[in-house]
């Protein structure tokens, strides 16, 4: 008996091992219909989905396919596949996987409406459906709320609109995680959330109030995000008092919403890790105070109270929660010095933003030791004074913005001299810093954005810039820099914006400028540059052919952090955006933030440039702004400017241009600011389309211009000579052969005109010879007297 039992045990163990290491021995892994479905899905995506599947074993073919122990396909994943064009999937193919529990189809550009996905009701085991980051349109069909065991539904980042379906929020719906963020949904928030625990409705167009019934005694909601909508009314924090599971709360960016945390009184039963109350009129009725309950939130990791007009001093308790790593207090009315909080102890913060307040004081020498964990610091637009502490160099800073303060002294070498520094963004603009632009031996190898404008830096453009190969934006406007624009700057591989205006730079703009293929904005206005404008500017890719919104945005996306910095505008995301100013009609036009991906501009104004405007500049079809004013440019306005189809501001004033304003320019439909005042232009002003909106000040100082909007009527004397004829005439007259031919012809004509008459007229000939004889006799008589 023992022997038989032992044999049976061995056989059983052998079969278990066979099942584990050789599952195909039990039977076919996925049936023919499922294999056909996978192949059809793969083919419909140009072979990008399930690319390793060749029609054989489903469970071992790809990481995108997951099976259970019984060899059933339970998960299919198609993340971020670069399908060209819109993909309309055959949803019935997915229903062939009867045991499917998870279906991930995010980021693959699925188009059409959601209704076909109602076929997934056949899948009785489906628990997760992820359709985020696609191009789905239309309403959310109610049938999705009836998928029998669906627990997680992600429809975020699509183009959905309409109201939220009530079926999603019924007791019969099993959905506990519901994400429809970043769509165009409207209507009100349902007053009853069903059994939903994570509720993300952010960045839509939802209206009305925040229903207090959502947070009942039975509520299990852990995540509630309604930021970026159009909600209104009053929200008292007392409605959250009994939501013991609440972990993540975001009510930010609802401009008509009022949030009160101090009344009526309440006691928190929850422990938040994330709290975002930015831009929601916080405690407007209670003196704009910082919420007192925050002191009880010991697990709080992320806190944003920005844009709320909060007053008083910054409470020290906000700095010393050991779990808080991100603190954003920008654009309030805090005053005094927060530095008194740090007499003892250090802070665990990694990201810290108190910009745009009224904070005063001197940064302590040991700042870097107190905030040793900081990687992101924004203390811009306050009233900080004194020197920049050298201890900043001891922190692992990626972002430092202390612009728009009253800081003085020089840039500490420790901040810029370490080649291992992770510094990506450095903004010291608009202080009273002095000395060299950068300390010698600066070596910021990862730096992408450098803003030093509005200080008192002297000397040349620092050669240390060449040690920052990743640099994309260089802004040193309004300093006292001198010398030439260095040749090595033109060879910098990634520069997108070069802003050098308001200095004492000299020399010429060389042909090397045309090597800067990524350049979008070039501003050297208000300097002492001379010479002509390079004719090769049409070689710069982003000024001529490519759309910056497509090509350079891909570049920024690849660079990751910089794209994040330049495009995110929420208070908590560091709105560290590109800013450029162009002077048109004595006004300053500012381009800021996201427009860096769309903005292209050239500003050469207020220099000593001479010569004509190269006709090649008319090929820069991607330019948004062009300013050549206040120079000594001559010649005519190129007709090729009609190709500047994206230009919005065009200033050619205060030069020596002549000829007419080309009528072809009326086709520039994007043009909103145009100025040619104080030149030598003549003829009728084009007065159609956009040009009918420009005022007479745009044309002042051109006495031979006529027509609307000037009060001077046109006559024949106002009409300029045809430009082509004038050029041909000037070309012939200026040729040296013309001079010699003219002298020869004139001499021959005079000779034969005189002697020809003598030959023809006999009496004139006789009179002429008698007169000659008398002159000869008189001359001989005169000579004989002196012999």
From TrEMBL:
Residues 1-27 form the signal peptide. SMART domains: LRR_SD22, LRR_TYP. Gene3D superfamilies: Ribonuclease Inhibitor. Its main location: membrane. GO terms for cellular component: endomembrane system; plasma membrane. Keywords: Cell membrane, Glycoprotein, Leucine-rich repeat, Membrane, Repeat, Signal, Transmembrane, Transmembrane helix. It is a single-pass membrane protein. It is found in: Cell membrane; Membrane. The chain crosses the membrane at residues 737-760. Pfam families: LRR_1, LRR_8. It comes from the Eukaryota. Belongs to the RLP family. This is Uncharacterized protein. It comes from Juglans regia. The lineage of its organism: Eukaryota, Viridiplantae, Streptophyta, Embryophyta, Tracheophyta.
């Amino acid at each position: 008996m023992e022997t038989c039992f032992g044999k049976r045990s061995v056989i059983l163990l052998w079969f278990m091992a066979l099942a584990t290491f050789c599952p195909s021995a039990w039977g076919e892994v996925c049936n023919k219909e499922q294999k056909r479905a996978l192949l059809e899905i793969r083919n419909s995506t140009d072979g990008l989905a399930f690319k390793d599947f060749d029609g054989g074993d489903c469970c071992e073919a790809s990481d995108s396919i997951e099976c259970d122990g019984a060899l059933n396909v339970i998960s299919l994943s198609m993340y971020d596949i670069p399908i060209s064009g819109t993909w309309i999937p055959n949803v019935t193919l997915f229903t062939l996987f009867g045991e499917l529990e998870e279906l991930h189809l995010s980021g693959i550009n699925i188009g059409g409406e959601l209704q076909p996905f109602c076929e997934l009701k056949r899948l009785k085991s489906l628990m997760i459906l992820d359709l985020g980051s696609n191009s789905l349109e239309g309403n959310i069909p109610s049938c999705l709320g009836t998928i029998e065991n669906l627990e997680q539904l992600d429809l975020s980042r699509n183009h959905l609109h309409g109201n939220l379906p009530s079926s999603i929020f019924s007791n019969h719906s099993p959905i506990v995680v519901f994400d429809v963020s970043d769509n165009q949904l409207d209507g009100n928030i349902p007053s009853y959330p069903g059994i939903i625990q994570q509720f993300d409705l952010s960045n839509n167009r939802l209206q009305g109030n925040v229903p207090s019934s959502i947070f009942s005694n039975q509520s299990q909601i852990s995540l509630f995000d309604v930021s970026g909508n159009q909600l209104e009314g009053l929200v008292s924090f007392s409605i959250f008092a009994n939501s013991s599971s609440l972990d993540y709360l975001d009510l930010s960016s609802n401009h008509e919403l009022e949030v009160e945390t101090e009344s009526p009184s309440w006691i928190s039963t929850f422990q938040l890790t994330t709290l975002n109350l930015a831009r929601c009129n916080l405690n407007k009725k209670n003196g704009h105070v910082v919420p007192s309950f925050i002191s009880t939130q010991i697990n709080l990791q992320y806190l944003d109270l920005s844009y709320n007009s909060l007053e008083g001093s910054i409470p020290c308790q906000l700095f010393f929660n050991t779990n808080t790593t991100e603190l954003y207090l920008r654009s309030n009315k805090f005053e005094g010095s927060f530095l008194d909080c740090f007499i003892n102890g250090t802070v665990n913060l990694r990201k810290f933003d108190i910009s745009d307040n009224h904070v005063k004081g001197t940064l302590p020498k040991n700042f870097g030791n107190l905030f040793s964990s900081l990687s992101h610091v924004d203390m811009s637009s306050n009233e900080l004074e004194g020197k920049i502490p050298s201890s900043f160099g001891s922190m692992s800073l990626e972002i430092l913005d202390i612009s728009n303060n009253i800081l003085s002294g020089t840039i500490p070498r420790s901040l810029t001299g370490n080649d291992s520094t992770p510094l990506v963004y450095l903004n010291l603009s608009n202080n009273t810093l002095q000395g060299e632009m950068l300390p010698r031996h600066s070596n910021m190898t990862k730096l992408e954005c450098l803003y030093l404008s509005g200080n008192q830096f002297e000397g040349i453009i620092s050669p240390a810039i060449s040690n920052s190969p990743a640099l994309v934006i260089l802004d040193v406007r309004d300093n006292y820099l001198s010398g030439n624009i260095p040749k090595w700057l033109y060879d910098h591989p990634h520069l997108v914006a070069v802003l050098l205006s308001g200095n004492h730079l000299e020399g010429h703009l060389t042909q090397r400028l045309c090597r800067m293929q990524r350049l979008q904005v070039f501003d050297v206005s208000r300097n002492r540059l001379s010479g002509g404008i390079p004719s090769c500017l049409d070689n710069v890719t982003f000024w001529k052919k490519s759309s910056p919104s497509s090509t350079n945005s891909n570049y920024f996306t690849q660079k990751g952090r910089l794209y994040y910095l330049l495009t995110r505008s929420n208070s908590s995301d560091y709105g560290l955006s590109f800013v450029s100013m162009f002077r048109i009609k004595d006004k300053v036009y500012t381009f800021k933030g996201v427009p860096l991906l769309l903005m292209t501009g050239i500003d050469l104004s207020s220099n000593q440039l001479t010569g004509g405007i190269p006709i090649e500049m008319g090929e820069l079809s991607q330019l948004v702004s062009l300013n050549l004013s206040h120079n000594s440019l001559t010649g005519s306005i190129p007709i090729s400017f009609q190709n500047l189809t994206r230009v919005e501001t065009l200033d050619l004033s205060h030069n020596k241009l002549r000829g007419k304003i080309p009528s072809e320019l009326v086709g520039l439909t994007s043009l909103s600011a145009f100025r040619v005042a104080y030149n030598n232009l003549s003829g009728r002003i084009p007065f159609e389309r956009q040009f009918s909106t420009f005022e007479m000040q745009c044309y002042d100082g051109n006495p031979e211009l006529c027509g609307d909007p000037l009060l001077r009527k046109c006559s024949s004397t106002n009409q300029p000579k045809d430009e082509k004829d004038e050029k041909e005439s000037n070309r012939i007259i200026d040729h040296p052969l013309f001079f010699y031919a003219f002298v020869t012809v004139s001499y021959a004509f005079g000779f034969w005109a005189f002697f020809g008459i003598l030959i023809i007229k006999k009496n004139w000939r006789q009179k002429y010879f008698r007169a000659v004889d008398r002159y000869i006799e008189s001359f001989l008589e005169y000579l004989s007297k002196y012999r």
